[in-house]
Amino acid sequence: MGAVVSCIQSCFRTIGRTIMAIINGIGSIIMAIVNGIVSFLDIVVGFLTCNTCGGRRRHRGTTGTTRRRGFGRRRHVGTTSTI
């Protein structure tokens, strides 16, 4: 009798795991659809706001190094030229 109960338990366990796998697959599909919609809306909002939404700063450089724009050559106080 114990072998029959064990066999029935493993059948129900297999059916439960199959149902959970199907539910996880459906959940993954729904998450992919929602992420796609969110990405699309992010692109649309970025287009309408000229990509200035959210306080992000996007800098484009032609080279890998950044150039500082500022005051030119810095002069130090106390050098030998002041003597």
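(ticket continues) Second input and output from the same batch:
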Amino acid sequence: MHKTSLTSLPPPLSHSLTLSIPSLFPLLPQSLQFFLHLVTMSGIQQAMSLLISSFHKYSGKEGDKLTLSKAELKELLQAELGEMLGKASDKSAVDRIFKDLDSNKDNTVDFKEYVTLVSCLTVMCNEFFVKK
């Protein structure tokens, strides 16, 4: 773990504090905190972190901050998966994707339902590249 000695700080912090980088996170800008986390995480942990942050980047713009509305899902699909899905701007395609993802029929897509989409797309990509 990275250590930083804070011996040159004015009192009361001058008494040789040794802090780890994670303990300094609240003092750092959020973008730098995210970068420092990525530096120390495994590839799978980085992928998980990106899945979570991508979901929350779009969720809650309308209503519940823990779910995606149809409009939020459409924005996510276009911005994050546009090249892969191609028809993410097609209203009927978005409607079908939304209906398929909304397994509990509450008219929103929660995190579990969103991860289902990403998992299915990941499996399809793997199958595509394995067949090449």
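Agent notes: The radius of gyration is 21 Å. Residues 43-131 form a domain with the Recoverin; domain 1 fold (CATH 1.10.238.10). Closing as not reproducible unless the customer responds.
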